[in-house]
Amino acid sequence: MLVSVTGGTGFVGIHSVAAMVRQGHAVRLLVRDPSAAERALGLLAVDPGAVDLVVGDVTDEGSVARAVRGADAVLHAASVYSFDSRRHAAMRRTNARGTAVVLRAARKADAERIIHVSSIVALLPSDGRPLREDSPVGRPRETYMATKAAAERIARRHQREGAPVVITYPPALLGPSDPGLGDQNARLRNTLRGLMPIWPLGGFPVGDVRDTAELHARLLTAPKSAPDRHFAPGRQLSTRQYVRTLREATGRRLPAVFLPARAMLPVGALAGLVQRVWPRHIPAEYGAVYTCACAVPVDPDASTCGLAPRPVAETMADTVRWLHGQGHLTDRQIGLLAEGGRG
């Protein structure tokens, strides 16, 4: 099967590409920078002979059409994922428009399966009930979440029109081999560096990028009668559980103060305003606090295509070891996990 992939140099994208290649599929990547694709493929030791590159952007109709031409399936994983207020314009430009361009082109190319990578945050805030496949699209008051909700509405419109669009909802993802050291892995790193002493109460869903990649690979050959919306494997963690799991993995104290999430929202909003002019990243983000204030668990009966999440402690340990091996953390910062050495 030939699978056309957008966002293939990102965290979810490259792990999904690796899972698809392991299953014997040929992959075509739409990339803006071929050198970034080479680095990402090398990070996961993906055979470059199994991957073809098309240079372009998801908002450009011509390059997208070239990328999906003749593809049996399309995985749309491209989006700007960040709570950094400096990237708001890029999110608005890419997330919804890119989805509209890619899904429309995939339909014109008669792709048999079109997988749109959404996010659990596209369904927030909810009415308080656990999230399910039929949960309504959210109307969040945060830029990244709002752009993912807008993309979700586009994907659902294609589903209503009978297109072979399948939607996946990844949780907050951790894991090794992150080409860009994205939001979640950076937050874990900042915690171990002592830059996250204050946390909002509440929680958020956490999963392993390798489980989400396996879901995407499995959906390529799933029966057409299967559900057309799936939650990637994950577990709802309170912020206290998150920090406690990291303490247990590393043996470090990691002092932390937990405050009501809604009380912290003004601080996050102020930090976002300052971030627009401050050159260094401020690890106090409105979007992260807002998520903790409104996130709810996924219904245990919701479809995950038969996949169970791996233990969060295992995911965290693997992620910390990888960060250490890449020089992002010191021996002291990873505590007990340094006993296994670098790598």
CATH topology label of the domain at 2-174 and 205-234: Rossmann fold
**Please, what is the average pLDDT?**
95
Number of strands: 12
Shape: globular
Approximately how much helix is present in the residues? 40-55%
Stretches with pLDDT under 50, minimum 5 residues: none
Largest sheet, described in full? 7 strands, parallel
Structure description:
This protein is an alpha/beta fold. The protein has a domain at 2-174 and 205-234: NAD(P)-binding Rossmann-like Domain (Rossmann fold), CATH 3.40.50.720. Helix content is 42%, strand content 15%. The protein is built from twelve helices and twelve strands. The chain has helices at residues 11-22, 34-43, 61-68, 88-108, 143-160, 183-192, 209-219, 239-250, 261-275, 286-294, 312-325, 331-334, and strands at residues 2-6, 26-31, 51-55, 73-76, 113-117, 165-169, 172-174, 198-200, 203-208, 229-231, 235-238, 257-259. It has a seven-stranded parallel beta sheet with strand order 3-2-1-4-5-6-10, sandwiched between helices. A three-stranded mixed beta sheet has the order 7-9-11. A two-stranded parallel ribbon has the order 8-12. Helix 5 (143-160) links the parallel strand 5 (113-117) and strand 6. It is globular and about 55 Å long. The two termini are 34 Å apart. The mean pLDDT is 95.
